[in-house]
Prior knowledge:
Elements: E1 12-16, E2 20-24, E3 29-33, E4 38-39, E5 42-43, H1 51-65, E6 74-76, H2 84-87, H3 90-93, E7 97-100, E8 104-105, E9 108-115, H4 118-127, E10 129-130, E11 133-134, E12 144-150, E13 153-154, H5 166-173, H6 175-198, E14 201-213, E15 216-220, E16 229-233, H7 249-257, H8 271-289
Antiparallel strand pairs: 1-2, 2-3, 3-7, 4-5, 6-7, 8-14, 9-12, 9-13, 9-14, 10-11, 14-15, 14-16
Helix pairs in contact: 1-8, 5-6
Amino acid sequence: MTVFETDFPKLKLLHRGKVRDLYDLDDALLMVATDRISAFDVVMPTPIPDKGKVLTQMSLFWFDFLKDVVPNHLLTANVEEYPEEAREYAEVLRDRSMLVKKAKPLPVECIVRGYLAGSGLKEYRRSGTVCGIKLPPGLKEADRLPEPIFTPSTKAQEGHDVNITFEECADLIGREMAERVRDLSLEIYRRAADYAEERGIIIADTKFEFGLLNGDLILIDEVLTPDSSRFWPKEEYEPGRPQKSFDKQFLRDWLEEIGWDKKPPAPELPEEIVQKTRARYLEALKRLTGKELS
């Protein structure tokens, strides 16, 4: 079953994001990962079958893997344990949803970069910095950085997130909180990157979201998925050029090749692009978790 847009008449839709739909179940939130895919902040009109299931199963894996590092917002992903009003939609919700705690999200994206790519590469070529952090001269595209760096951004409701400096992050959420999420983000990244590299995946960069629950800092949203991270196959890694990837960079590359202007409406995706994108998501899931979708 491919799910593009969820429609649960008996549930209160709180927010429809580019990929996820969020429902208010009074004491908890229901987070549903659809098969929508976005590129350049525009949702494509063609879904990627099973993509939402891959994102959910991968997040569940990482929440468990990181539970000794940071608490998270997961209550359960077992649809049989959902409130009665949600169990009615069990067929759609199974494997692609989570019941989560209601936390107050921090207004920043916590991005960690271990390699030079994306917007960081563009800034480095202009100024030798990434989000104001000075890097050594002479780095090439996809080079490993001397140390992972914390490069936060603002969370945009629409359009592009905006990279900010650590000082600007501290102005937004307070210096003590900024230092906490920086140190925690770097620790999570290092643990996950070491684990992933042993399984043939380089995590070039990733983003985390944190929230406050009764004053405690917890990990929320998704974590270390192909949508929130840049995953590269280790066996094909070669600095100085764009890397092959397990994320949607493959889709972005195709959109660049056809000359799309990156403004809505987005073009329909050919079946070949859909299936090759799907295969990359499934391969990432199998490498990292050792599991395949049932």
